[in-house]
Amino acid sequence: MQDDDGKTAKDAAPTGTQTLLRGLAVVHAVASGARDLKQIAHIIGTTRSTTHRLASCLVDERYLRVLPQVGYLLGPKLIELGFQAREALPLVTLATPFLDQLSALTGDTIHLAIREDDDVLYLQKNPGRNGPEMRSRVGHRMPLARTGIGKALMLDCSPQEWQRLYQVSLPAGGKNPLWPNHVEPTWEQFQQRMLEYGEGGYAFDLEDNEPSIRCVAAPVRDASRKIVAAISVASTVPYMSLEKMTALIQPVKDAAAGLSAELGG
């Protein structure tokens, strides 16, 4: 909206605010690929002398750097602040709106988890409205390779790491005490599933860990594209048909992508 003088809100801002916004615009211009004063000035709409003054100040404060034969680049101060910002992000708080949205959409149990060593560590759980309460709880740990959310956390691992995690997840004696008649997938079957999940950017739990429990999961990535967490929707077989699992892939991936964006991914 414009004021009576026809100026934009940015133009009408106090002088100090204008300088701050112009300085930030210089940083954004460099981040987008501008390497010299002419390019930066063209992008932000300032004179060469003003652009030089702003850029020089940012170089002095280490927000930008200048390299011979290259030009302006983002500076070390931004790297330091970026790491501080990433470490300060409250993952559960950022995730809550996306978990609540999935709860409202599905009525099923929603989980947020991270990898800790060879296990899934559950950070948040929204109990479902469908079927009996699940055993999972905040702070609970499970082997990565036995859960859908764990498989989502494993998607970027090498096949060698998949095999190691598969082997350490096998129940003692080859039988799950909760499900003695369950036939474990072979390594070849497990690997084929992981390859398919990796291509699709999601993972399933097809009653791999607990009788009648199925889930759909997707990874959460940070600014470096590293998988740092995962989100899942889980329920019992009567409420989680294979058709429903397929339909849930995109909503779960969307929720994970939304949280990834909040983390800079």
Summarize the entry for a quick read.
The chain has 265 residues and is an alpha+beta fold. The chain has helices spanning 9-12, 15-31, 37-44, 48-60, 76-88, 91-106, 148-153, 159-169, 187-200, 242-262; strands at residues 64-67, 71-74, 109-116, 119-126, 141-143, 203-206, 213-221, 227-236. 31% of the residues are buried.
Spell out the key features of this protein.
265 residues, alpha+beta, Arc Repressor Mutant, subunit A, Beta-Lactamase, six-stranded antiparallel beta sheet, two-stranded antiparallel sheet, 46% helix, disordered N terminus
Describe the structure in your own words.
- With 265 residues, this protein is an alpha+beta fold.
- The chain has 2 domains: 9-84, Arc Repressor Mutant, subunit A (Orthogonal Bundle); 89-262, Beta-Lactamase, CATH 3.30.450.40.
- It is 46% helix and 19% strand.
- The chain is built from 10 helices and 8 strands.
- A 6-stranded antiparallel beta sheet has the order 5-4-3-8-7-6.
- α3 (37-44) packs across α4, α6 (91-106) packs antiparallel against α10 and α8 (159-169) crosses α9 (187-200).
- It starts with 8 loop residues before the first helix and ends with a helix.
- Mean pLDDT is 88; it is low at 1-14.
Uncertain runs are: 1-14
- For the CA atoms, what is the radius of gyration? 25 Å
Going by CATH, the homologous superfamily of the largest domain would be GAF domain
Strand-pairing-aware structural class:
alpha+beta
Rounded mean pLDDT is 88
Q: Give the strand order of the largest sheet, numbering strands 1, 2, ... along the chain.
A: 5-4-3-8-7-6
Number of domains: 2
